[in-house]
């Protein structure tokens, strides 16, 4: 999938998502993360690390107030989405379309997608 941002058939929402992708990637490039091409496996592993960090905030027996704990979880979720957007932009993937197409597929699947949980 490839989006040309000048294509007038692209919805306003698509443009917004595409912009988020582009900005995430530009910031990563500006910070030197793309001075040379990167390994796909490493990039995906780094997405996992953000989710693990979110889990650690939930696991911590800290003195944080409930809201602070959830703010930290949200930040790790944002980190994960930012890494996904950066990856998609670098690999020329249209994340917005992929999400909408997948949600449409999921709507047509069986309850719990035919799984126990
Ligand atoms: Mg993080």
Can you put this structure into words, describing what you see?
- This protein has helices at 12-30, 40-59, 66-90, 95-107.
- It has 117 residues and is an all-alpha fold.
- It has one domain (13-100): Helix Hairpins (Orthogonal Bundle), CATH 1.10.287.
- Helix 2 (40-59) runs antiparallel to helix 3.
- It is globular, with a radius of gyration of 17 Å.
- Bound molecules: magnesium ion.
- Magnesium ion (MG) binds next to helix 2 and helix 3.
Summarize this structure briefly.
This protein is mainly alpha-helical and 117 residues long. Helices cover 66% and strands 0% of the residues. α1 packs across α3 and α2 packs antiparallel against α3.
What compounds are bound to the protein?
A: magnesium ion
Report the CATH topology name: Helix Hairpins
Oligomer: single chain
Number of helices: 4
Key words describing this protein structure:
binds magnesium ion; 4 helices; 117 residues; 0% strand; Helix Hairpins; mainly alpha; single chain
SSE diagram, text form:
Elements: H1 12-30, H2 40-59, H3 66-90, H4 95-107
Helix pairs in contact: 1-3, 2-3
Magnesium ion is lined by residues 50, 53, 76, 79.
């Amino acid at each position: 999938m490839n989006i040309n941002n000048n294509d007038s058939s692209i919805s306003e929402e698509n443009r917004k998502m595409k912009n988020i992708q582009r900005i995430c990637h530009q910031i990563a490039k500006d910070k030197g993360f793309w001075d040379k091409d990167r390994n796909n496996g490493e990039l995906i592993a780094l997405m996992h690390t953000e989710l693990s960090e979110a889990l650690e905030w939930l696991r911590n027996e800290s003195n944080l107030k409930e809201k602070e704990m959830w703010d930290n979880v949200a930040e790790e979720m944002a980190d994960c989405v930012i890494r996904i957007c950066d990856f998609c932009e670098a690999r020329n993937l249209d994340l917005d379309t992929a999400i909408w197409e997948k949600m449409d597929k999921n709507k047509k699947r069986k309850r719990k997608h035919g799984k126990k949980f």
